[in-house]
Amino acid sequence: MPTKIRLARHGRKRHAYYHIVVADSRAPRDGKYIERIGSYNPNTNPATIELDFEKALKWVQTGAQPTDTARAILSYEGVMMKKHLLGGVRKGAFDEAEAEKRFTAWKEGKDAKIQSKKDKLAADKAEDTKSRLAAEAEVNEKRKADIAAKNAELAAEAEAAAAEASAEEAADEAGSEEENAEA
Prior knowledge:
alpha+beta; CATH 3.30.1320.10; five-stranded mixed β-sheet; 4 helices; rod-shaped
């Protein structure tokens, strides 16, 4: 039975995530599978990959052929590197301790690279948030200044109208006193 390591699609429309499965190559994409060895979520940044390393390595060593995307995921997680190193041990190029040392060195470098990307993304997000808050504060200050200017203008108009009204009242009172004096 020819086996393949491939992705089985799950999730809603335009928001897919995948199960990494070992299946008969003749089975449908989302159909019957032999074993689920992990999951892959491309919607996060960086993509989230959960993989049972030992199961994946066992299946790759027994001859399961990964699809292109599954091969990329297995390489990213180090399964293909481990298989390569174990092939070198089998050929006698180096011993198992050396293979494990090389693999851990590779894995640490890879993890450091991934962590630096996560840190950079978090720093960029924080910087973006900070710049947005600064822009919003600037807009709020401008808005407050415009409102204060408009209120001062309205207060000046109200004072002018009150002064004009009191001047008219004084003129009216003076005019009515003159009329009373004439009468």
